[in-house]
User: Fold this.
Amino acid sequence: MRCLEARCGTTCYDCRCPTSAHRPTGVIAARLHGVETIRDFLASAAVTLILDLPFLLIFIGIMFWYSVTLTLVVLAIIAVIVTLRRVGRATLPASIERTVPARRPAPGVRH
Assistant:
């Protein structure tokens, strides 16, 4: 039994994956970076927007079919929210700079 266990153990532990061939670290890092780039693209907002856009149009069409008035109210509210967000994005950094004083260390205090 020990002989079988020793043979199986050495076979399993000596097994080398094809990806673990002797490659420079830069090659492996470049491959991992490529995979990360693809993953980031697939999780990006642009891809989500492209996939959600047809369904958005279908839902708005169904809403118009159900009630034109309610749909126009909802679309107007969405337009107001988008406008306020854009205005807020433009004015927020300037207001933060005016209200928050510059962070300077006090004399004699070490960081």
Notes: The chain has two domains: 23-66, 67-100. The CA atoms of residues 46 and 52 lie 10 Å apart. The mean pLDDT is 77.
